[in-house]
Amino acid sequence: MFNNVGRKIKGLAKVCYWIIFVLYCLSAVGFLGGGIYQGMQLMKTDQTKGVLTILVAAFGALILVGLAFLFAWLSTVLLYGFGELIDQTMQINRKLGNDKPKMPPPPRGMMPPPPPEYAGAPMGAAAGSMATTQEMPVATQNCAKCGQEFPEEALMQVKTPDGMTHYVCHSCYEDLVGRT
Length: 180
Known about the structure:
This protein has helices spanning 5-43, 47-96, 170-177; strands at residues 130-131, 138-142, 149-151, 156-159, 165-168. The chain is mostly helical.
């Protein structure tokens, strides 16, 4: 149901386009039919007005069919574009390797063990992971690489090749990953 959402949205846009187009064409046929009927009624009294009414109805029906393309396209182009945007985003995520499910962050106050190369850096409760203010305590954590204390929201997750998740500050993240 939630797989290939972009393709499904684009398919919905195409279906909506054809439904709108067909409805406009049916209204053009109804307009033409009504014009022919009125023209035939007028021909009984004044042949010129009857023929003119039929011609105006035919011209109006052609304009409605022409506008059907435009209105159907305008009605569905944003929906199709949104589906295309989702498809392109999914392609970029697949190329970057970000399409795998993400692990949820650990519960507040808990910190995974540091990797062996950062074993000396103070972390978690040993480094005083809770800084307090007068009004409300603010949860903090130490960067796994440099050891500096930061609010938990400022740290970024880094997954090591052995599958462990660690939290590092922005500058250490740039050093480890090599991008911002």
